[in-house]
Design brief:
It comes from Prunus armeniaca. The protein contains 8 helices and no strands. It is mainly alpha-helical.
């Protein structure tokens, strides 16, 4: 009878361990955006006429004339590339372009080109963070997007469950 209880406890422990690991895998944060695909690199480079408007420190009130049609074409053909560009804008990215996120987010309005909202990028697995406080002018609202990690309670729960399972195994081992 002692062996049957031991086997039952081991099966319960294993099942609980699998459940905890599956739960943790489900709550893991989305991976950071990777390098832009070659197709996106080509598409983004096709918007070269917009660079003078979106570069940090630009004082232009409107982009160069060819920019808006290039933006419209990118939105039509490769909208996910906009997500890639915005997600990589605050870091050294694979495209190699540094842009002012605030100006880039205003570009569709200036060009009168309808784009999906930036929050859609997160749904596609490409989270776009909000500009930092130093990038946001004092009189303009931020984009409302903030990066989020897993809930703090998830790691505490996992730690306590793992401690319980380890204690259970240690308590049952001498019986066997």
């Amino acid at each position: 009878m002692g062996r049957a209880i031991m086997l039952l406890m081991m099966m319960i422990t294993t099942t609980m361990l699998h459940a905890v690991l599956a739960h943790l895998a489900h709550e893991a944060p989305a991976p950071a955006p990777g390098p832009a695909s070659p197709d996106c690199q080509t598409a983004i480079l096709g918007m070269a006429d917009c660079l003078t408007y979106v570069m940090p420190g630009s004082n232009l009130t409107k982009p160069d004339k060819p920019c808006c049609p290039e933006l419209a074409e990118l939105v039509k053909d490769n909208p996910i590339c906009l997500c890639t560009l915005l997600a990589n804008s605050n870091s050294s990215n694979s495209v190699g372009l540094e842009i002012d996120v605030n100006r880039a987010l205003k570009l569709p309005t200036v060009c009168k080109v309808q784009t999906p909202p930036p929050s859609t990028c997160a749904l596609l697995g490409i989270p776009v963070g909000a500009p930092t406080a130093s990038e946001t002018p004092a009189n303009s609202p931020g984009s409302g997007l903030t990066p989020q990690g897993p809930p703090a309670s998830a790691s505490k729960t996992a730690t306590s469950v793992m401690a319980f399972l380890a204690g259970l195994v240690i308590a049952v081992l001498p019986i066997w």
